[in-house]
Design goal:
The complex is a heterodimer. By secondary structure, chain A is an alpha/beta fold. Chain A has two domains: 10-158, Helix Hairpins (Orthogonal Bundle), CATH 1.10.287; 166-315, Trna Endonuclease, Chain: A, domain 1, CATH 3.40.1350. Chain A has helices at 10-80, 91-163, 170-178, 191-209, 258-274, 296-307; strands at 214-223, 229-238, 241-249, 284-291, 311-315. A five-stranded mixed beta sheet of chain A has the order 1-2-3-4-5, with helices on both faces. In chain A, helix 1 runs antiparallel to helix 2 (91-163). Chain A is rod-shaped, with a radius of gyration of 42 Å. The two termini of chain A are 22 Å apart. By secondary structure, chain B is mainly α. Chain B has one domain. Chain B contains two helices and no strands. Chain B has helices at residues 3-28, 32-69. In chain B, helix 1 (3-28) runs antiparallel to helix 2 (32-69). The chains are: A alpha/beta, B mainly alpha.
């Protein structure tokens, strides 16, 4: 347990709003990217079709150029007789064929490049979509759950920090500090989460009530009955008053001696804090029970039991 | 700036704004609920969003290369 320090409730609201705004922006981006992927793929497919067509046309041009050159060479052979000429009578056809072959090679190169790029874009898009799906889940269902947690936390803090009165000094102070306890209907319903949260809220309230005097989660050495020491943490320490918060439902313990054993254990724990060598001599203790038993006799029993051990009791709601 | 680069920029700006809000919130909100929230939710954002940004940057580069080299 550590002290809660929610100094400004609005920050929870701001964070909830920020999550919503971010989710909206992200959805816009994801949609725009999908459009861009679609357009890029369609454009590349179009280029592939174009270059496939060009390759076919240019193959025909090469075949025509080859035929023209062959025809020229046959004609030249027939017309030359025994005359020898330094001139190449088919130079033009040879150049035309070379040009046609170069154009074909260029088209084949462009086709291969377009195909490679399409493959790479599709591969990058597939990889991106894996992450995009995670982002989508994050900014939809997960975001809603996160926002619900923030709303719940804010509601609970408002109840604790905004409505509980603080007055008085000494042991009586704590009763005033703690005020009434109202359990909400939020995600902090689990006993562990609720216990941590309730401790934090109480600690926060005590710190606010005793600025400069109250400390939360104070680490101290605790002397055990056998003389050994272990580390303990005091929920709140106001001057020399140890304040311990218990969120147990004591009503459930009121049978078979379980309540007595639990109270004894609590007393031993708190008295161990009071006897800590880290505290000034004469430290006193108060226990704040968040959930008092409904049975008045049971409450009286608990009060008497703790009072006999020198420990004050403050009931929650 | 290409269209996809603009989308990258939008995501970067939005993420920075959310991170700033988270940082501001942490300065004021420090209790077990905050830590649970961080572990349960915020850590996912910190893991998933940068990975998505990286994948988007890679996709953007690939498309830009295709647009530049394919005739």
């Amino acid at each position: 347990m550590t002290g809660a320090h929610v100094e400004r409730l609005a920050t929870l609201h701001d964070l909830k709003v920020a999550l919503g705004v971010f989710g909206g922006r992200v959805q816009e981006v994801l949609q725009a990217v999908e459009i861009e992927i679609k357009q890029a793929v369609e454009w590349l497919q179009g280029r592939i079709r174009y270059w496939q067509h060009e390759v076919e046309i240019r193959k025909i041009e090469v075949r025509k150029a080859e035929a023209a050159l062959a025809s020229c060479r046959r004609g030249a052979a027939l017309n030359s007789g025994n005359k020898r000429s330094r001139e190449n009578p088919c130079l033009g056809q040879e150049m035309a064929l070379a040009q046609a072959r170069a154009r074909l090679a260029e088209a084949e190169l462009q086709l291969a490049n377009a195909r490679t790029c399409l493959g790479e874009v599709q591969k990058a898009a597939a990889k991106y979509r894996v992450h995009a799906r995670k982002v989508t889940a994050l900014v939809t269902s997960r975001k809603e759950k996160a926002q619900a947690v923030l709303v719940a936390a804010r509601t609970q803090l408002e109840r604790y920090l905004g409505t509980n009165a603080v007055s008085g000094t000494g042991s009586a102070v704590v009763a005033g500090l703690v005020g009434r306890m109202e359990q909400g209907t939020v995600d902090l319903s689990g006993p562990t989460e609720w216990g941590k949260f309730a401790h934090s809220a109480y600690e926060e309230k005590v710190e606010a009530a005793f600025p400069g005097q109250a400390q939360s989660e104070v680490r101290v050495r605790v002397r055990l009955p056998d003389g050994t020491e272990k580390e303990g943490r005091i929920d709140s320490l106001v001057g020399t008053t140890v304040v311990d918060y218990k969120t147990h439902d004591l009503s459930k313990l009121n049978e078979d001696g379980r309540l007595e054993r639990t109270l004894d254990a609590i007393c031993t724990q708190v008295q161990g804090y009071c006897a800590s060598p880290d505290l000034a001599p004469g430290a006193s203790a108060i226990i704040v029970f968040e959930s008092p038993p409904r049975d008045p006799a049971c409450r009286s029993f608990i009060e008497e039991r703790l009072r006999s051990r020198g420990i004050g009791v403050v009931w929650g709601s | 700036m290409s269209w996809l680069a603009k989308e990258q920029d939008k995501l970067r700006t939005a993420w920075k704004a959310l991170q700033a809000q988270w940082k501001a919130s942490c300065a004021l909100w420090n209790d077990p609920v905050q830590r649970d929230f961080q572990e349960g939710y915020w850590s996912e954002y910190e893991q998933i969003i940068p990975q998505a940004q990286k994948a988007l940057a890679s996709l953007s580069d690939t498309i830009a290369t295709a647009r530049r080299t394919v005739r």
